[in-house]
Structures are given as C-alpha cells and as structure tokens.
User: Fold these one by one.
Assistant:
Number 1:
Amino acid sequence: MARIISICNQKGGVGKTTTAINLGAYLTALGKYVLLVDLDSQANATIGLGAHVGDGDMNVYHALVDDQNPQGFIKKTSLFGFDILPAAQSLAGASIELVSMENREFRLKRVLDTVRTNYDYILIDCPPSLGLLTVNALAASEKVLIPVQCEYFALEGLGQLMKTIELIRGGLNPDLHVLGVLLTMYDKRNQLSQQVLNEVMKNFPGRVFQSVIPRMVSVAEAPSFGKTLLQFDPDSKAARAYRQLAEEIIRIA
C-alpha cells in the first residue's frame, strides 16, 4: 500500500516540480515503485518527464471530474518503476467544476484508492495555490513535504500553509502530518542562503531535512530534455542531494 506524499507550497518557483520529479527518480533507483500525480494545470511535471499529453488526451482531470479510471492513462516514464498520472491545461477548469460536486474534497483520494496497491510511494505535485485541487491533495495524503527556496521572503506564506494543514487535519484528514521542510536553491557562497537555513531550522525544529538542494544550472536544464537528474547529471551535487533525500524519506516514511 503506497505512502502518499503531497509536495506543497502555495508560492511558485520554490522547486516543487523539480523535487517531485527527482525524488521520484531516486526512490525508483532505490528499488521503489513510484507514481507521480501532476496536479498542476501547467503540466510541468508531465512535460519534465517526457510525457506528452495533448489537451484532448485523457489526464488527471478526467479522473477527478468525469470519474474515469486512471489505470487507462497512467503513463510509464523512461525509468522502470516510475509512472506519472499526467496533467494538461484542461485541469485549470477542474477547481471550478469541483465546487458543486458531492464529496468534492475527496475526489483525488477516491482516484488514488484505485491504484494505491500498485506502488510504494505516490507523490503529488501540487499547484501553487491553496485552492480546491491542493485541498484534494492534502485530503488524500498522509504526509506533506514543503519545499522552501533559500531566498528573501522564503517564509512568507508558510504560516498560511501550516494553518491550512491544521484545518485539514481537524476536519478532512486527521492522519495528515508534515513530513519535513526541504531547503532548495541553496548557494553556500550567499549569506542570505545561510540566514534562510538558520531561520527555517529555528521555525521548524526537528522538521527540516538534512538534505539541502543546491542551486545548479543542471537542475533547471534537465526537464527541458524530459529527463531527471539521475539521467541527465547523476554526478552533480544536486543529484546527490536528491538521492540523500530519497534515502531520508525511505527511513522516516
């Protein structure tokens, strides 16, 4: 039975999709079966894994809104054991369509229950908002991984995310817990990066991953080739950091 982990932060550009793709790749490299659910209508995770889905093609939208069985359109990636439930632009309308639906917060949970026994981990790449799609992700998950970039205003909005998580724990999903905060885009030459690191550790004692993802060109380049760091630049510091993160998660989740 898969452990379900949402990768969530309502701020954009913090490394959610990069983390989802590369964590999935390294969990797979360590012998786990992984499904990545792309819940963002920009479909960056889908594209970054080389899965090309046209707007008319079946995707996660059809599972959420039309009750289609996702088994038919889960795609295999180029890494054995790593699958993706893809997104397309049509997902942008799902938030509005879900509003009037019965059990609207549990639509994704119901979808994932149909495939959960096929995987060790299901990772959900959440959209950069705290809307109904993110609520669905958190209602379906046991754990939340929060990427935080080592930049000014890094902690802005985290309080709101924590409140949302507490609200969901109080009502929709009492089993939801924060797995940890992951620092991304770290530059050891930059004093601000160190300040953010210290601030996050002070605010989230015992909840910050030892793995810290460095700022590197190859991290941004790999998705444009439809590849993970494991395939594109496996000897880089960033690749080693994601491998360490996967090892940490296997130990604690």
Note: The two ends are 12 Å apart (CA to CA).
Number 2:
Amino acid sequence: MEGPGLQNADVALLREFHLGEWLHVQRRAEMFNVLNNADYGAPNRFVNEPQFGAITMAMHASREAQCSARITF
C-alpha cells in the first residue's frame, strides 16, 4: 500500500552580535512545520484487522516555535 505524501517546511533565523573582542551573543528563532500541514502516517497494512487501509496516526506535530540565546566569551 502506498501512503499519502509528506510536506514539511522548517525555518530558522540566526543573528550574531559581537560585543567587543571576546564577547559574542547569538539569538536564534526556529519554527517547525511552518505551513502547519497535516502529514499522515501509512495506512494499516494488516488484512486481518478491521482498520485495514485506514490511516490512524499523524507523522508530525502541529506548528512549533522556539527561541534561544547564547552568550560566548
């Protein structure tokens, strides 16, 4: 059996600031599944089960975002 297609787009933005010769600050923002597409798993392939051919799970979570900062000296 062939399952549905997979569409996934992730984005990351990064900015680094140099504060003097030894101090660096890095800010980062990431977003996963930007388009918020539902990607479904493969259909059930066991013939003897009542859910044969049914898709019962999603492959990825919904849209997620995270931000972080890093200081290096």
Note: The chain is about 0% helix and 40% strand.
Number 3:
Amino acid sequence: MFELYVATLASIFSIVNPLGAVPVYLAMTPTYSQKERNKTSRMTSIYFFLILCLFFLAGTWILSFFGISIGAMRIAGGLVIMSSGYTLLTGSITNSGATSKKVTEEALHKEDISFAPLAMPLLSGPGSISLLITYFDDYPLWWQKGIIVSVIFTMGIIVYLILRFAPLLYQFLGEAGLRALSRIMGFIVMSIGVQFIIGGISKVF
C-alpha cells in the first residue's frame, strides 16, 4: 500500500514538475500582492486536484465513448510524456505551447489565471492525465484507486506550497538551480514515457 503511494507520487511529481512552473508563475504574476498570490496558489491547487480526479475516475469511460483502447492510450500517452520529458531535458519549458510568450501576455491581462493557464495545461497537462487514465486500468481494486486519489490530493498540497512560496524558492534555487532540477526530472519523465510505450505495444499485440 505504501509502496503504491510512493511510486505513484514520484511518477506524478516528475511529470507535473511543479518546480518548473515557478519561473512561469512569477512571470505571470509580477504585479500581484502577496494576498493575491496566496489566493491564486490556493485556487490553482484546488482546480489541479479536481481536474486530475475527474480524468482519473472518468477517463476510461471517455476512452470507451470515443472507441479508444487502453493500449492505444498508453502509446499516445507515452509519446506525449516523452515529448514533455524532452522539453524538460533541453530546458525549453518556457518556450512550450502551455507557457509561450503569447500565453504569458494574455495571463497578465486576466483577472484569474488559476484555472487557465496554471492548473490546465501548465500543471495538469496531457502527460499527467494520460498517466492517471492508465493507472485506473492498472489498479482495478477500489482501495488502490483510493490511494491514487490521495496521491492527487497530496500533489495538490505540494502545488499549493510551491506556488505559495515561489518567490522564496526562486531566490534560493535561482534560474540555474530550477533548470538543473527540470533536466533531472526530464530524464525520469522520458523513461516513464518509454515504459508506457512498451506497455502499450504489449497491450495491443
């Protein structure tokens, strides 16, 4: 039970990579007061939890509705996760579609950025969603699904704390430190993506 919790938390944390979102978050909130940042951090973590729980619990039904097999989902998800890992590995997260210059400029003029683009797609993107949908199929027992929901809740708390103390983390780690951590995460995420593709091919054939 504990091993499932730790393994799932490590996988989701690597793919979500909330530390990599710190410079993006700060770039989108330069004029925010501490109170406004606290509220944004809190709402982002709530939306993050709800989005991932929704796709985890209803993901297989969505796949069935569109006639997509879990094997195909594994392969597609593996490719997305590998792409995310490569982005982290090359240190180009700030140039990705979810955090492009245009998205950042739009966020500066929005009253609330907690749902979009922070919670989705920056934190709860295709990689983490595909991972959780396949986990729903991999762990059929309800106590296992309960553990995974508790992991999502834990990740929500982690996201809140990291965004809440983003200025301090950025000051402590600096741009170089955050990029180094993102590259390490990128290698792990790419490995998860490869494993997903192998699992998907095995499932299909």
Note: The chain has one domain: 31-204.
